[in-house]
Amino acid sequence: MAKVSAVEKNKRRRKTVARDAEKRAALKAIIKNQELPIEERFRASLKLADMPRDGSKTRIRNRCEVSGRPRGYYRKLGMSRIALRDLGNTGKVPGVVKSSW
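== Small ribosomal subunit protein uS14 ==
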């Protein structure tokens, strides 16, 4: 089980990203627009730099929904390999059966 503080920090980052997504996208569009004057683009880059870093989407860490484990994460299922194995063996994941030979 992951530290509760790490899991909560990641949840807080997700909320910040969702809140600031539109504003960040608008500022990035201004910065990338070559037709605008350089002063306006520079002001937009300063505003973007003043925004909280946790508002960036790249700061989010994929974590298992069951255990909070950050590694061995399957995006399609939203859980780690260990949680998948445990839940798959007990038959709680639809479409997953334990292989035996």
